[in-house]
Amino acid sequence: MASFSTISELVSMAEENRSSISEIVLSCEVQKMQKSRQEIIEVMNQRLIVMKKSIEKGKKNYNYSVSKMVGMNSAKFDSFMRRNSILGKIVEKAICYALSVSEVNACMGLVVACPTAGSCGILPGAVLSVSEEMNVPDEKVVLSLFTAAGIGMVIGKNATLSGAVGGCQAECGSASAMAAAAVLELMEASPKQIGHAVALALKNYLGLVCDPVAGLVEVPCVKRNAFAAVHALVAAELALAGIESVIPPDEVILASYEIGRLMPKSLKETSEAGLAKTPTGKEIEAKMNNW
Amino acid sequence: MESVFDIIGPIMIGPSSSHTAGALKLASMARSILGETPNKVVTRLYGSFAKTYKGHGSDRAIAAGFLGFNTEDERIPNAIDIAAEMGVKIEFIPLNIPVDHPNTLEFEMIGKSGLKIVVQGISVGGGNIIVKKIDNYEVNLTGNYETLITCHKDHPGIIAKITQIISSKNINIAYMYVSRLEKGKDAMMTIETDDYITSDIYSTLLSSPDLNFVKVIHKT
Fold this sequence. Notes:
heterodimer, B: about 220 residues, Alpha-Beta Plaits, six-stranded mixed β-sheet
């Protein structure tokens, strides 16, 4: 049975078969789950539909979170970008969509964890901004999510996708690498370029800590999703231009795991240091505890 | 990671896979172990659950789990009110006591029939859970398999008898766990299987004089 456990295996399997990374990931899933190709694509399509719905929901003055720390910013950004802005359409949409999905998540709405709920805005933000502006049909967008999944599986296997284990690099870093890979799939880049984009995206988020205020998936998480979606686009565009990562993707993944293990526990989702323990962070936490 | 849908997924009500989806799944497993909708539940929240349960909506997710909602149900944010309307009383007690796992929950349930069971479990990330204790017995249940729970008198041959009944139906055991409080007294066994546990197995075990508790939890 075909399987992969590293990015280099994924890239060479795609090269040998003269196919895309998404095809490799999809056919491995078909074999593993003993379901038809069409059935598996349909399950992924359901996830794409939920992603789109959460974008729409978030843009419409959705709500504030229970703590009132986050909410309404995607709507604010949506109306801002219609008037004036300094960035191009794709980047603006990526910001807006990532904020939307992430706010819907913080407000107890329906989302697709990808790979986690805390990082759920990054992949839809990057992928759907590009697919809309480049007129990529949905059938291709669905396939690109398999590419993202394949990258996430490798990171999960050789490092971690949990903020409690590896800090935010494991969640938003991984999501960003997955998103960069999916965007390149939409752009019909080579498997090798996808590998480099993964390395570039993850490398730049190495060491990112998880220090959320009051222990909630809100500050800095929601806005970080917007940054990370753009970050994924930068990695994708660098790789598309033929720029390579000196350190290969699999080595970057192992480095991220090592860094995660070395990171103090206080900065891994425990809210015992960093932003969580700033004067304002502590004030918000005290307010939440006295509800 | 077994599937692409562990990475792109689950589809869930936010904000946290461990504190919202995981909390719901633990409550829903506890409800299945009780075997009925509870009348009353005292929920003890430990570790990070104690600190963050309100902001993560863990309380609403737990109520949703006891009502039998799944992690995608858009009624989750209103589940506490729905539970109250349905006469399910759920109390939440955050406790600042050291525990082995940072995300631990304990449910003390009383069913409509009067049955009382205490279930303790942990949320291990990504919406995955492990039930660690049923009453005072140690167990290890993920809810990812067909599950059989039995309570029997601790004497020779019982375990063989139970597994014999299961194997006679060509059902493969994936994981098995036996624990007891004291030698010669009651013991609890949990069995996770690859194949569907049929109702005839349940009724055969239920009629056995050696067993004082039999529960089947189907994989969802």
